[in-house]
Write the structure tokens for this entry.
Amino acid sequence: MSENQSIKKCAAYCLAQGFDISALAGLLSDAMLIRIIKGALLIENDHSWSIVFAYGAVVHWNVNSEQQAKLHQLLLDHAENPLTSPEEDHFTFALDCPGTRIIEDHIEIESSDPILIFALSQGMAQSIKLASFETNALTTINNTRYIPKSLAETGKINLSRHKIAKIRGQLFLTKSDIILNYDLLDTPDFFWEYPEYEAFYGITAKYLEIAPRTGVLSKKLETIHELFEMLADEQKHRHSTILEWIIIWLIAFEIGMMIFDKIL
């Protein structure tokens, strides 16, 4: 086995909602070899690569933990909404193999072409971003699971109007954040210019099951939408009930005043 075919480590992280690629490029350009490719940052250093994506993901190839931590700190200094619990995924890889494939989290790569590495990274970055969406959606659903149960058992939601409004806001934020970024899970525009590399992206996208996981995420979004609508209906019902009681009391007051005037 040659030096390039020795087993190396690869890791993908989702650290934030987004990174300021322009600012990062300006900071890093003096210290290391970088390329900006379709809004992503490719950092090269002696057969190691870090690819930083604007949507908050980074993929490292043959980068030691100390260098990763140093770059992550810089990324977080120029990040939008850093995640409380970053997502991560780990692989091993070898270069100069007969072909490119993934078996049991080990990636065999046919060359050290940086654009090939970049193409593989596209699918890995999408997968780890999708993992953050999955975690966000599942956490939201689990935190509000008691609402339909309460409605089924008691016929009402035992929450104040303020609490209901707050939960609706959280549901809306989760849903809108995912939907606004949903196009990130499509085939990247990069492959319009580099169609010869799309097959490599397809290898990671298929192995990491991006398409079926996206379908499952859609179902979770439907659940969130149903919870949102349920709470909206409850708020409307409570509001109309309050208005009805106000009208009843006003009518009662008016009748009372008429009776009082007649008595006098």
Observations:
- The longest helix spans residues 210-263.
